[in-house]
Structures
1.
Amino acid sequence: MARRRVSQPTVRWLGGLLAGVTMVAALSGLVALLEPLAPPLHFQVLYVLPIVAVAIRWGTGLAAVTAAVGAVVYAYLFLPPLYSFQVSDPWTAVALGVFLVTAIVVGQLAARLRRSALESARLSEEQSALRRVATLVARSVPPTTVFEAVIQEIGLLCGADLARMERYEGDGAVTGLAVWSRVPVQLAVGTRFELEGLSVARDVRQAGGPVRVESFTGAVGAIALEARELGIRSSVGCPIVVAGRLWGVIAASRKSDEPFPVKTESQIASFTELVATAIANAESRAQLAASRTRVVAAADEARRRLERDLHDGAQQRLVSLAFELRGAKDVVPAELPALRADLGKVADELSEVMEELRELSRGIHPAALSHGGLGPALRAVARRSAVPVELRVNTESRYSQPVEVAAYYVISEALTNTSKHAGASRAEVAVEERGSTLRVFVSDDGAGGADPGRGSGLIGLRDRVEAIGGSIEVTSPRGDGTLIQVSLPIQRRDGAEWTGEATAPPQAAR
C-alpha cells in the first residue's frame, strides 16, 4: 500500500501547533516555579510571549490557537478551583477573557509587523538585484553577461531551484542562452528545442504574456521530458519583448510542491525589461558598428580605385609624354638651342608633376602596403616624415586588410600631426603583436595638448579603429608630448586566403 503524502502546508501547521504547545508548557512550568513569589494572576501576561512568537513565525491562526491553549492551561493549573476547567470568580473569568482577546490582538499585530518586515526586505532585495543588473546594462557589457546575471538574480529572488533564458528562433524553435541552478545539474545551453508538447516557452509564445505550468506529469515533448528528468514540478515564465517583438522567454522552476508566490510574474517582468534594453542596445551598437565598417570599407575601396586609376592612367600618360619630349629634344638641330632648352625644361617639370602625383597616390592608398605589408609601408612613411622617426615593427605577420590599413593610417596621420602641430624634434613608432591584438604606439616630444574631440584628424582615426572592433587612447598633456595607443583585433592572412600563418618576410625595422 502506497504511503499517503502529507502536504507541506499541513506539516508546517502541525509544526507550529507543536511549537506553541511546547512553549505554553514550558512557560507554565516557569510560572509554577515562581508561584510562591507572587499570586499566579500576576504571571498571566507572560503567556503573551509564546503567542507573539507563534504569530511571527506561523501566522495569526496558530497564534489564536496558542492563545486559547494558554488560557485553558493557565485556568486549569493556577485559577481556583485548581485542576478544573471551571472558573468560580466572575471577575477572574472576565480577566481571562480580556487576556485572551488582548493576546489575539497582540498576535495579529506581531504577525502584521512580521509580514511588513518581510515585504520590506523582499522589496529591498528585489531593488538591489535590479540595480545590479541595471548597472551591467548601463556599462554596456556583453549581453551574455547580462543574461547570466539576470538568471541568477531571478533564481535567488524567486526561490527557484532552476532558472533559464531562451530565445525564439524564426523556425519555431527555442535556443537556450543562459541557465542557473541551485543544485549541480546538467542544463542545456546553446541547444535548440522544438516547441512540441507542454513547455513554458510554448505557452508564453501562444499567450504573449506570463504563464504558469503546475505539472509536467504525463506531458510530451523534449522540454517536458527534460523537466521530469530534472525533477521539476512547476514553472513560471515571462516573455522578453524587444522593440515590440517577442524575442525570448525567462522561466523559473521549482522541484518542490510549494507553488510560486503570486507576485513572481511581476518580479520576473521587471528583469525582462532590463534584458530587453540590453538586447536593444546591443543590436543598436552592432548595427552602428556594421554601418561604420561599411562606410570605412567603402572609403578604402574608393581610395584603392583612385590610386589604381592614377597609376594606370594619368601617371602612365605623363611618363610617356615626358619620354616623347626628351626624344624630341634630342632631335632638335643644334642651331636651335633655345628650343632644346625649352623642351628640356618642360620634360623636367613633367617629372616633377609625376613625382607630386606619385606622392598624392601614396597618400590616397599606399601600394607598398598592399604588396609588402606594414614594414615596407611604414618605412616609407618614416622616410617622408619631416620629423625624425624611430620605427620598430616587431612582427613578421601579414594581417587582414582592415587591420593593416587602420594601423597604417593611424601612424601616418599621427606623424603628419606631429610635423604640423606638435613642434617635436623626434617621434617614435612601435608596432607589435600581443596575444590576439596588434598594438600600435606613436609618441613624440612635442608641445602636447592634442584633443581628439575638437575636430582633429584623430576623430576619423577613432572611427576607423572602432569600426573593426579596436580601441584608441590619446594621452597628450600640455608641454609633455603626445602618446597614441591603439589596439586592433588580429586577423592574419596568407595571400588571398585568411589563415593564422605568417607568410610575409620579416618586417622588423628601426
Note: The chain has 13 helices and eleven strands.
2.
Amino acid sequence: MKIYTPEEIKKVEKIDIILFCGAKGIEAIRTGHKYYRLAEHDSLVINTHSNYFVWNSQQYYSFCTSLL
C-alpha cells in the first residue's frame, strides 16, 4: 500500500468531486443547488460546497479522497 505525503493529500483534497466522478465515468445527477446523487447508487449524496459525500445506505461519509 502506498503511503501518501501530507502535500499529496492536500492536493487531492482540492479536486472537485464532480469532475473526478466524470473523469472516472461515474454519472452524477444534480438534485439541488449544491447536491448530486450517483446514478447507480442514489443513496450516495455529494455536497459540492463542502466537497464531501454521504452514502446513506452504507452509513458512511467522507471527503473525495476516500473515492480514490
Note: The chain is about 20% helix and 30% strand.
3.
Amino acid sequence: MPEGAATNKARLIVDDEFEIAPIDDRLFGSFVEHLGRCVYTGIYEPGHPTADADGFRQDVIDLVRELGATTIRYPGGNFVSGYRWEDGVGPKDQRPRRLDTAWHSTETNQFGLHEMVKWLGKVNGNELMEAVNLGTRGLGNAMDLLEYANVPGGTKLSEERRANGADKPFDIRMWCLGNEMDGPWQLGHKTAEEYGRLAAKVAAGMRQIDPNLELVVCGSSTHDMETYGAWEETVLDATYDLVDFVSCHSYSRPWNGDMQSFLASGADMEAFIHEIAAIVQSVKARHKTSHQIYLSFDEWNVWYKANDPANNPSGIGNWPTAPRLLEQIYSVTDAAVVGDLLISLMRNADTVHSASLAQLVNVIAPIMTEPGGPAWRQTIFYPFSLSARFAKNGTALETVLDGPSIDTQAYGEVSAIGHTAVRCKDGSLAIFLVNRSLRDDTKLEIALPARRRFSAARSWTLHDEDGSASNTLEHPDRVTPQVTDNVTIDGDTISVNLAPVSWTLIHVC
C-alpha cells in the first residue's frame, strides 16, 4: 500500500426490481476509419501469413470476435469529409489513388464499401454504421450512396452494385450525417445553422428512398467547444423529427499530469450525457412531438493527443500510404479509465443507445498489429471484452452507493467508486466497479436482491502495482485480467476488496 494510503469502506445496494433500461447491443460498437494503419496492415493485409483470399487478417478477425464489438462505424471520422465513396467500389485495378487531407496520407481505395461489408460478415455478421460526406459533398451524393447500397436492383446505381459482386443490397440501417461539422479542422466545416439546414435536407432526401433509416446528426465534437450546447440546440431545432440520434464525442486524458481527475473521467462522461439529454428533451418539448432522439456516443476512448505525431507527415510532396499515426500504447491505468467510461455508458442505457470505441485496430485501439507479424491485445481490450460478454442483451439496474468521495481539480468532488450492475440475459448479475482513488483501497460490501438466492461469485480484476504497465509487441501479455479470490458471498451479501486504480467485474449466479 502506498505511503499515507488508507483503507476505505463502502456499501453498494443492487436491486433488480429497479431497472434503468435494456442495454442495446450497439453500446459495444467500435470504429474503423481510413486513418494510419487501422485498415491497411490492420484489418486488411494481403500477403500476411493469416490473410484469407480477400486479404483479411484472420488473427485480427479472431480478436475482434473476442472483443465482442458489435456495430462498426465506417469510413470516418475526419476522413469521410473528403471521401468519394465511388472510388472504393468496382475493380481494384481501376480504383484511383487519392489525397486524404484529413491525415495527410494517400488513400489507395483498395478497401472500400464492398470489402467492409464482406469483412463484417466474416467477423460475426456485425452491423455497419455508414457515414456520408457532408464536408465536400451533400444531398445528391448521399442519395446516390444510399441507392447503391440499399436498393435491391433495377436502377443504374443498384445494378452497378450487383455488377460489382453484391447481388443483394447491403441494407444499411444506421447512417451518420457527416462528422464533427462544428470543428474548424473539419474539411467543409459549417456553422450550426448551415449544418442544420444541410442535415435536414439530406435526412429528408434519404428518407424518400428508405423511410426506415436510423439517422445520426452531428453533435459537438467535444464538450469543450465554445459552441457546445448552442450547437446541439440549433441543429436539433432544424432536424428533430427527421433524425433518430445525436452524436457525442469525448476523449479522456490527464491534463497537465492530473491523474486523479483523469481517473474520474467516467464522472465527466456522465455529466456530458446528462447535459445533452437535457437539451434533447428541451427541443422535444419545444417541438411538441412524441418522437424521441437518443445519444450515439460514437467516438470515445483515452487519447493522449499531445503525445501523437498527428501533424506529421507534412509537405506537398509527402503523402505516405498507411503511416503509423496515433498508435498509442495503453497502460493498466488507461484500462481502468476505459472500464469506468463503459460503466457510465451502461448507467445511462436509457439515453445512450449506441456507442463506438474509437478506434478498432492500431489507431488509439484495443488491438495492435505488426505488418507481416503478430496481433495482440492492449490493456483496454479486457474491460471492453468482459463488459460486452456479460452486458449484451442485459438490463442496466439502479445501484446506490454509500461510500467515500475524492476531490478532483477538474470535476470537483466525485464518488471514489465507479459502479453499475446488469441483469444478464440468463438472469445472473454482473457488477462493474472501478476504484478511482490513486492510493486508497476500498473494502466494499454489496447487498444483493434479498428475494433471490445466489450461490457463487466470480471476479476479474485489472490492476498492477506499476500503473504504467502495458502490453507491447515484445511483451503482449504483461497485463491481463486476474481471476481473483478476494470475493466472498454470504447469503445476499458480497464482500470484495478494491485496490486503487483498478477495474473489477463480479459475476454472481
Note: The first strand starts at residue 7 and ends at 22.
